[in-house]
Amino acid sequence: MADYDRSTGAPWSTADLEQLRILAAEGTATSVIAVQLNRSEEAIAHRAAQDGINLSAASHNPYDPDTLNR
User: Fold this and answer.
1) Using CA atoms, how far apart are residues 7 and 13, in angstroms rounded to an integer?
2) Could you give the angle at the alpha carbon of 53 between the alpha carbons of 3 and 26, nearest 5°?
3) Per-residue confidence of the chain (70 residues) as pLDDT tens digits?
4) Of 14, 21, 26, 64, which one has the fewest beta carbons inside 10 Å?
5) Which of 34, 50, 39 is nearest to 10 (CA)?
6) How far apart (Å, rounded) are the C-alpha atoms in residues 35 and 39?
7) Tell me, what's the pLDDT at 59?
């Protein structure tokens, strides 16, 4: 399990949510979003689902050959 500076269940700020929306819309990999927001991939997926943010299939696999030219 990776170490995270934030404690589990830390509240999401407005800036965090906005960054999540922007990165998801750009098709950024979930793992990259997790690193940028300093949260787990599970937390990213949960919050995205909770807020109706679409994490495209491309954002789940950064090594997908169809998304390498983004």
Assistant:
1) 14
2) 80
3) 455 455 567 899 999 999 999 999 998 999 999 999 999 999 999 999 999 999 975 545 556 565 555 5
4) 14
5) 39
6) 6
7) 47
Token digits of residue 67: 């998304």
Residue 24: CB atoms within 10 A of its CB come to 19
At 16, the amino acid letter reads: D
d(CA 50, CA 61): 21
Token pair in block for residue 37: 């927001």
55: tokens are: 């994490």
Alpha helices in 1-70 (DSSP H): 14-25, 30-37, 41-51
Half-sphere exposure of 48 (CA within 13 A, CB side): 27
